[in-house]
Amino acid sequence: MIYAAAITGPTASGKTALSVRAAKALGATVLCSDSMQIYKEMSIGTAKVRPEEMDGVTHLMLDVASVTEDFSVYSYKAMALPLAKEVAKSGHLPLFVGGTGLYLSALTRKDAEAPGRSEEYMRRHEALAATEEGKELLHRRLLEIDPESAAEIHKNNVRRVLRALEIFDTTGKTKSAWDKQSREGGGEVSLLHVTLDFKNRDLLYERIDRRVRIMMEEGLLCEVRALYEKGLLSKDTAAMGAIGYKEFLPYFRGECSLDAVVDAISLGTRHYAKRQQTWFRRQPDIHRVFMDTDDGKMRPQDEVLAEIMALLVPYAEAHYGFSK
C-alpha cells in the first residue's frame, strides 16, 4: 500500500501556491493530477506550474504526453503509480495536486479496465463522426444503451462517445458498468484527500476571470495559434477537449472578436469549475478546506495553509516519520 496525500479543488482555487508551500514544508514530491497539464504543448492555457513557482519542490507527471496521444485514465495510472511507489520508497510523501478527480479514483480504487481501444473501430465510424448529423446519431445511440455515460459525455467529444460505444459493442457491458466495477474495492493507494472549496462561488468566478486575463497577457493567443498552425488543434487531439484552446477556432476563422474568445473561455471555465466542485463534494472521506469566510471574503493564504498542514503533518509523521 502506498500512503499518499492530495490537494485538489476547482480550477483557479489556489492549489499551485498552497501545494508548493505544503510540499516544501513536508519534503514531499508533487505529482500532477491534472488531465491537461500532462501535455507538453499546453502550458499557459492549463495554468501549468512554472519552474520558478516550484521553489525547489520536485514535480512529476508534467509534460509526459503529446496532444496527439490517446492518454486515458488508465494511461495515467500506469505512469503515475510506479512514480508514486518510488517516491514513497525513498521516504517522501507523494502529494497529488490537480483538479481531475478521476485520476485519483484510478489510483485508489480497484482496477477493472475495459478492453483496449481499437483504432480500426474508430476508423469505421470516422465518416459518420465527421458530420453534425452523425454526431447526433452516435450520441443518441449512446443515450439508448448507456444513459449515464451519455449524460457525462458531450456529443462533440466524438472520441469519448465512440469509446463508450466500442466498450459496449466489444463486451456487451456499458462503460458506466465498467466504471462502477472499477470503483468497488480498494486500490494500491491510500489517500489523505484535501480539497479546496468556496462558500461564495462568485469569489471563485472572479478568480477565474482574472486568471483568463492574465493568461492572455502571458501569451495564450500565441500558444494556441502555434497549435493551430501545426494542425494540433483538431478533433483528433487532446487540445480540442481543453477549455482555453478550442474557443479560439472561430477567431482564427475570422468569425468573432478576441474579446468574444476571452468571454467564452471565462464562461466555459466557470461551468467546468462548478462541475469540479460538485464532483469533489460528492466524494467520501474528503477534507474540505474553504478558501473564503462566511461573509464572502478570501482567507489569508497562511491561514488556509495552516489548516491544510494540520491534516498533512500527522499523516506524514505516521507513515514517513516526518518531524516538524
Describe the structure in your own words.
- This protein is of the alpha/beta class and 324 residues long.
- The protein has two domains: 2-109 and 186-320, Rossmann fold; 119-182, Orthogonal Bundle (Histone, subunit A).
- The protein is built from 15 helices and six strands.
- The protein has helices spanning 15-26, 51-54, 73-89, 101-108, 119-124, 126-129, 132-145, 147-152, 158-171, 175-182, 201-218, 220-229, 249-252, 258-281, 301-320; strands spanning 2-8, 29-32, 59-60, 94-98, 189-197, 286-290.
- Strands 3-2-4-1-5-6 form a six-stranded parallel beta sheet, with helices on both faces.
- Strand 2, helix 2 (51-54) and strand 3 (59-60) form a beta-alpha-beta unit.
- The protein is globular.
| Biggest sheet record | 6 strands, parallel
Q: Using the coordinates shown, work out and report the CATH topology of the largest domain.
A: Rossmann fold
Task: Figure out the total of helices.
Answer: 15
Helix content: 40-55%
Counted up, domains total: 2
CATH class of the largest domain: Alpha Beta
Strand content: 5-15%
Named CATH architecture of the largest domain: 3-Layer(aba) Sandwich
Uncertain regions spanning at least 5 consecutive residues: none
> What is the typical, i.e. mean, pLDDT?
90
Gyration radius (Cα, Å) is: 20 Å
What class would the helix/strand composition place it in?
alpha/beta
**Strand line-up in the sheet with most strands:** 3-2-4-1-5-6
Q: What's the layout of helices and strands?
A:
Blueprint: E1 2-8, H1 15-26, E2 29-32, H2 51-54, E3 59-60, H3 73-89, E4 94-98, H4 101-108, H5 119-124, H6 126-129, H7 132-145, H8 147-152, H9 158-171, H10 175-182, E5 189-197, H11 201-218, H12 220-229, H13 249-252, H14 258-281, E6 286-290, H15 301-320
Parallel strand pairs: 1-4, 1-5, 2-3, 2-4, 5-6
